[in-house]
Amino acid sequence: MRDAVIVEAVRTPVGKRNGSLSGVHPVSLSAHVLRALAERSGIDPGVVDDVIWGCVSQVGQQTLNIARNAPLAAGWPESVTGVTVDRQCGSSQQAVHFAAAGLVAGQYDVVVAGGVESMSRVPMFSALLDEDPLGSEFLARYGGVAPNQGIGAEMIAERWGFSRTQLDEFSLASHEKAAAAQDDGRFDAQIAPVTLDDGTVVSRDEGVRRGGTVAKLAGLNPAFKPDGVITAANSSQISDGSAALLMTTSEKARELGLTPIARVHTAVLAGADPVIMLTAPIPATQKVLRRSGLRLDEIGAFEVNEAFAPVPLAWLADLGADPKALNPNGGAIALGHPLGGSGARIATTLVHHLRDNGIRYGLQTMCEGGGQANATIFELL
């Protein structure tokens, strides 16, 4: 029976908005991780059947099918095809799902799944161009309310009863965990440093802040409601970055002399209310556990994307998972959230964490625009 295994996973450091990576074209950023995949695995890129690439703002420098342009920019053979995926923040996690499905179905033998977003060069919502993306029938169904992710985060905080202090404490913990991971070198093996045109080498995630306090965060103004609890500090950071996973089957890995890191055990989707927007990781996790046949306590590490602090906190409250196993190396509040690249960044961090710590099962989920979520269980091999 065919399966889908990950044999290499690599990412760029995550750059702050207008930070070190803002001068790098998103095609070049993507090409960088593709070259790193080939170099680290030793494969001939010509064996890759397809590149499935997540990207949310497919406009400007990220348009014209960046999934095709990236392998060509990387110097890979013209025979290597590419397709760009948009499932909002879950785009590159969906790329992993599509890659796994293609491997199991026999459509692929070797495939790359990943993604990119340069939010410095292609700002969020650039694709709207003052147009209405929803239409009158959508708005009529939801009482004329156009979904807003920040307001959705405020709705979650209110519904679950989270205080500003709780959200800020969670955010500080994300930075503390990410800083500890940096200091311990836990990210080193997964990061492919980027050398800029001036010779500067960028090798560390730029968003990690040290020495914060709840008192300092309390001085920030709410971002979406005058009396709200969501601020820049308890929200994910606007970022630049790319990540990619080299995937194949166990049989093909043996043939190519590759050693699998992890298997895609189970992959599902879930949809929920698009107005509150950010709650679907809860039903997605419930669904992936049912379909996998695994219990929650069999999962040794969880990655729930920190789009806003209320999202993983609500997930934790409803699922009852071990808080110590949640985002053990920090999350998007500290590391950043390069939209189309985040799913692959999280998967890369998770499979490295499983291997480094001998953890058999890891679960990844993330909220997405439109009230959707992917959930994926990886099994260490």
Task: Provide an overview of this structure.
This protein has 12 helices and 12 strands. The protein has helices spanning 26-41, 66-73, 91-105, 135-141, 149-160, 164-184, 214-217, 250-256, 281-292, 310-319, 332-335, 339-357, and strands at 5-11, 15-16, 50-54, 81-85, 110-118, 194-195, 201-202, 239-248, 262-271, 301-304, 361-368, 372-380. Strands 1, 2, 3, 4, 5, 8, 9, 10, 11 and 12 form a 10-stranded mixed beta sheet that branches. A hairpin with a 5-residue loop joins β6 and β7 (201-202). The radius of gyration is 19 Å and the shape is globular. It comes from Pseudofrankia inefficax (strain DSM 45817 / CECT 9037 / DDB 130130 / EuI1c) (Frankia inefficax). This is Acetyl-CoA acetyltransferase.
SSE layout and pairing:
Layout: E1 5-11, E2 15-16, H1 26-41, E3 50-54, H2 66-73, E4 81-85, H3 91-105, E5 110-118, H4 135-141, H5 149-160, H6 164-184, E6 194-195, E7 201-202, H7 214-217, E8 239-248, H8 250-256, E9 262-271, H9 281-292, E10 301-304, H10 310-319, H11 332-335, H12 339-357, E11 361-368, E12 372-380
Parallel strand pairs: 3-4, 3-5, 10-11
Antiparallel strand pairs: 1-8, 1-9, 2-8, 5-8, 6-7, 9-12, 11-12
Keywords: Acyltransferase, Transferase
GO molecular function: acetyl-CoA C-acyltransferase activity
Enzyme class: transferase
